[in-house]
Specification:
- This protein is of the alpha/beta class.
- The protein has a 6-stranded mixed sheet with strand order 2-3-1-4-5-6, sandwiched between helices. Strands 8-9-7-10-11-12 form a 6-stranded mixed sheet, with helices on both faces.
- It is elongated, with a radius of gyration of 27 Å.
- It binds guanosine-5'-diphosphate (2 copies).
Length: 454
């Protein structure tokens, strides 16, 4: 049984190359000074200092979070190549190639006032070979009179030019509409909205003390709430106020009525556990501190991790733990819980009430980690430093490069690394570990997937 989860883990590692619905990436490419940074500023809707006036400054692949009409995406400002590079056409081709590889949509910017140049035409040849959707932007169309200039860009063979003034905003709404239309199913922006009580699954094998704990917290806090304004609670759930906040313990009907687990086979008990975990945001996995950590305990932990729920491990029956047991328990924890060093642990006794008040803060911390969103800029600053300090090992004279990363989602945090090729499993784990070291995520699983450019 123990081997079973090891296998499961390896399996999920093999899957790790498949990202789960990453946020679409839009790359903005073009010659220097056509207004790419100004356009990116316009798209992300803030007038921050993306535009770098220092000539020759390389703003290579800087990603920003953006949204439009309720859709979110990442926009990558592919700043540039050295303006004085010997072979500019080759430089733009190389840059465009990287941008094309990582992007879902390419926005190709041309200065409509200058018109198309040799460099633009070189880039177009590259763009047309790719299967990626390309939107042609005729920038610096500051007024209607200049739209004529934009029309001449039809000659580039990229379809209809979108006349835009990145500087003044003219035409940028229409361009954003077109970008959204060209994107693969962009995930909707999650609305914060009104939220009911957080949903908790109280799980563990029979006799670890689940009903005792539920009774304890209900009694301790006295206020077993029947309803919270604006929410409906399933009758099989329990609404309990702990640590000054209501929590919805899902599928606890059986526990409350003290219907023994014996009423179902172990199979049904495990289905029920899986259902509760699925319905919850955070799981409290109860372990019996007086007993060795069992295979059944491991299976329940695996269910939580695989469901991507926040996790608090509560060692119950702590009143039975003496110095001797403590010694062995520490060893067991090192050995058996090695795969989840990030889980938050509390040592409690449902019987005496010991440390039960630690449960609510632990739940809150785990949920906070679970919903953490790392700003893209911060993420990539950290990643750049990491990759510089410890580059990917060279295999057969080649090493894949990580181009940039985005956070594709929360609950749990999901990250996508955009790379020039598949990463070594060991190196990917290294990045994951460092990601945790930097950003924490105590109490939450974290997913990292790799998207090699095509
Ligand atoms: P990049 O090198 O392609 O990123 O170009 P920048 O965004 O740095 O812009 C180059 C110059 O063009 C700057 O002086 C901008 O103010 C100017 N610029 C950008 N967009 C427009 C526009 O729509 N109209 C006008 N008139 N100038 C623009
Ligand atoms: P469940 O099957 O997980 O709901 O477990 P129960 O709450 O029914 O508890 C199983 C047994 O463990 C009962 O005899 C409880 O009295 C006992 N128990 C529960 N919590 C504790 C605890 O913290 N300390 C001790 N010593 N016994 C406990």
């Amino acid at each position: 049984e123990w081997d079973e989860w090891v296998e499961l883990e390896e399996e999920s590692e093999a899957d790790a190359g498949e990202p789960t619905g990453p946020v679409p990436v839009v790359a903005v490419v073009g010659r220097p000074n056509v207004g790419k940074s100004t356009l990116v500023n316009r798209i992300i809707g803030r007038r921050q200092a993306v535009v770098e006036d220092t000539p020759g400054v390389t703003r290579d692949r800087v990603p920003y979070d953006a949204q439009w009409i309720g859709r979110q995406f990442t926009v990558v400002d592919t700043g540039g190549w050295e303006p004085d590079a010997k072979d500019r056409a080759a430089a733009i081709a190389a840059q465009a190639e990287i941008a094309i590889g990582t992007a879902d949509v390419v926005v190709f910017v041309v200065d409509a006032v200058v018109g198309s140049t040799d460099v633009d035409e070189a880039a177009v040849r590259m763009l047309r070979r790719s299967a990626k959707p390309v939107l042609l932007v005729a920038n610096k169309v500051d007024n209607a009179a200049l739209e004529v200039e934009a029309t001449s860009l039809w000659s580039l063979g990229l379809g209809e030019p979108h006349p835009v003034s990145a500087l003044h905003g003219r035409g940028s709404g229409d361009l954003l509409d077109a970008i959204i239309k060209a994107m693969p199913e962009a995930p909707p922006v999650s609305e914060p909205g009104v939220r009911g009580p957080r949903r908790v699954a109280l799980v563990g094998r029979p006799n670890v003390g689940k009903s005792s704990l539920l009774n304890r917290v209900s009694r301790e806090e006295r206020a077993v709430v029947d309803s919270v304004a604006g929410t409906t609670v399933d009758p099989v759930d329990s609404l309990v106020e702990i640590g000054g906040q209501p929590w919805q313990f899902v599928d606890t009907a059986g526990l409350r009525k003290r219907v023994s687990q014996a009423s179902g086979t172990e199979y049904y008990a495990s289905l029920r556990t899986a259902g509760a975990i699925e319905a919850a945001e955070v799981a409290v996995v109860l372990l019996d501190a007086a007993e060795p950590i069992s295979e059944q305990d491991q299976r329940i932990l695996t269910m939580v991790i695989e469901a991507g729920r926040a996790l608090v491990i509560a060692f119950n029956k702590w009143d039975l733990v003496d110095a001797d047991r403590r010694y062995y328990l520490d060893k067991e924890i090192d050995r058996e819980l090695k795969r989840i060093p990030w889980a938050i642990r509390v040592n409690i006794s449902a019987k005496t009430g010991r440390a039960v008040e630690k449960l609510a803060p632990a739940l809150r911390t785990a949920l906070e980690s679970w919903e953490t969103r790392v700003p893209t800029g911060q993420l990539n600053q950290w990643l750049t430093a990491l990759v510089q300090a410890t580059p990917h090992p060279v295999r057969g004279g080649r090493a894949p490069r990580i181009l940039f990363a985005t956070q594709a989602g929360v609950a749990p945090p999901r990250f996508v690394l955009f790379t020039t090729g598949p990463l070594d499993a060991g190196y990917q784990r290294f990045v994951e570990r460092k990601l945790r070291e930097e950003f924490g995520f105590a109490g939450s699983p974290v997913e990292v997937s790799v998207r090699p450019r095509k």
